[in-house]
Design brief:
The protein is an alpha/beta fold. 33% of the residues lie in helices and 30% in strands. The chain has a single domain, classed as Rossmann fold (3-Layer(aba) Sandwich), CATH 3.40.50.
Length: 208
């Protein structure tokens, strides 16, 4: 155990979700993030943390219920959850030629970047794996590289997102593309139970 390299995996929730959604295979959305994180490890490595960053879609009851079930399932696997928020604003919508409501995710990206830097400075990991294709994380990853040059940085791009984040690839040379086959191998059970057989979460019908 002493010689094992410590690995922490950080997941940009909506960036990963939208990439999976575009695959048009709903069952892949019921993803075990802990299993996905472990599938990215090399021999002689141990997972010390899988951290999921997301925001609740609270204006759509059905989607909110699906999301809360998913979060409960992740928590049962030992995944750490950090929440952002959505900000609602009115802007001109060219499609309808009028003012429309737009919702924009807030704080999640900032929370992810701050957490990565904080964990690097407090010696949480020897290798960082970042699951995203969002170039907004370039400053935080660059800072980690500057402050802790011995840390190995790995960029795990969501499905079909490798090309979308070339700028990240200029900084992080170790790259993995998460493909549909890996997602299929890391699905959650349809029913999640605790040690007393109490049901914690069930797969939403939309994910079947």
């Amino acid at each position: 155990m002493e010689n094992q390299r410590r690995v922490a995996v950080y997941v940009d929730g909506f960036n990963l979700y939208h990439a999976i959604d575009e695959l048009n295979v709903p069952k892949l959305k019921w993803l075990n993030l802990d299993a996905l994180a472990r599938s990215l490890l090399c021999p002689q490595e141990t997972l010390v943390k899988c951290h999921y960053f997301t925001s609740i879609v609270d204006w759509n009851p059905k989607k909110e219920a699906n999301h809360r079930a998913y979060i409960a399932a992740q928590r049962a696997q030992g995944v750490t959850i950090t929440y952002g928020t959505f900000k609602t604003s009115k802007r001109h919508c060219a499609q309808f030629s009028r003012q429309c409501l737009f919702r924009e995710e807030k704080r999640t990206d900032v929370a992810l970047g701050v957490q990565i830097v904080a964990d690097a400075l407090t010696d949480v990991f020897d290798r960082l794996i970042l699951v995203t294709a969002d170039t907004d994380q370039i400053p935080s990853v660059s800072l980690v590289h500057k402050l802790r040059p011995n840390i190995q940085l790995t960029w795990a791009a969501p499905p079909n997102r490798m090309r979308n984040a070339r700028e990240i690839g200029k900084i992080v040379k170790d790259r993995i593309e998460i493909k549909a086959g890996r997602l299929a191998a890391c699905r959650l059970p349809q029913v999640i139970q605790d040690h007393q057989q109490k049901v914690i979460a069930r797969i939403p019908p939309a994910y079947l």
